[in-house]
Design goal:
The protein is mainly alpha-helical and 260 residues long. It is 78% helix and 5% strand. The protein is built from six helices and four strands. The protein has helices spanning 9-33, 36-89, 95-178, 181-193, 217-225, 242-259, and strands at 200-204, 207-208, 230-231, 238-240. Strands 2-1-4-3 form a four-stranded mixed β-sheet.
């Protein structure tokens, strides 16, 4: 099997800077979306949480309402029992039986009082929960409206950029395959460690782009010679000369224009 011809340093620099420009274009598209996808996700979580909370409150109200009905039924049963005991008192043979029935009546009356107390407490709980339900419903309606607006906003942005981003991602993957693993790993490591994602920069006015540290003339000559891949000692970024950068940028601008 014929051995694959190794790329020259210049070809490696062209490929890695092309990848940088493609990845920066992807970053630019994603920056246009900003925090919008996260905002939508957070709002969806809030809406889900409020919906579950509302369902729980409604379940609680149904449960309390059932308990109130049970207490009312119990009161009616106690009243029926009282009437029964009072009828029995009319036919007692002695005071002991009468007093025994009186105690039963008194017990039933206490049970009625306790049930009425519980009903009063439960009705107060119902009123409080109804207020919370109204507040929660208002908050949910507001969040749902906000979510609808944000989703529409995100949909519009996605419609404008999704196709271009997809094509750029394909190009990014294609250029990654052109670059040797060690250099690609270094590129991704640098890119991940710098705020603006620039792992490859050109020399501008004697310094690497975006830096105030001057690069020694000898090093600038080596970079322009394209015989070795050199990095900025201050930022760690891969350096290329401005002429090569302009050539690659012109080529990539043509590519980007076709993708739109």
């Amino acid at each position: 099997m014929a051995k694959t011809k190794e790329l020259s340093v210049e070809d490696k620099l062209r490929a890695i800077y092309s990848l940088q420009l493609i990845d920066s274009k992807i970053d630019e598209i994603r920056n246009v979306r900003g925090e919008l996808p996260l905002e939508v996700e957070d709002l969806e979580d809030e809406v889900e949480g409020l919906t579950k909370r509302l369902e729980k409150f409604k379940g609680d109200l149904d449960a309390i309402d059932t308990q109130v009905k049970e207490k009312k039924n119990a009161i009616e049963e106690h009243k029926t029992t009282i009437k029964k005991y009072q009828e029995q008192q009319k036919n007692v043979r002695n005071n002991r039986e009468y007093n025994s029935l009186s105690k039963e009546v008194e017990f039933q009356e206490l049970e009625i009082q306790l049930a009425e107390k519980h009903i009063k407490e439960m009705k107060a709980s119902i009123e409080h929960k109804k207020e919370v339900v109204v507040q929660t419903k208002e908050k949910l309606d507001s969040k749902q409206s906000h979510l609808k607006h944000k989703k529409a906003e995100l949909k519009d942005i996605m419609a404008e950029t999704e196709k271009e981003e997809s094509l750029l991602l394909e190009k990014s993957e294609a250029y990654e395959k052109k670059i040797e693993e060690r250099l690609l790993t270094a590129y991704k490591r640098i890119r991940g460690s710098v705020r603006n994602g620039l792992a490859v920069v050109s020399i501008e006015r004697g310094a690497s782009a975006g830096s105030f540290f001057t690069i020694p003339p000898q090093t600038q000559m080596e970079i322009a010679g394209r015989k070795r891949i050199l990095t900025d000692e201050h930022s760690g970024r891969i350096l290329i000369d401005s002429v090569l950068a302009d050539e690659v940028k012109e080529e990539m601008d043509k590519l980007f224009a076709k993708l739109k």
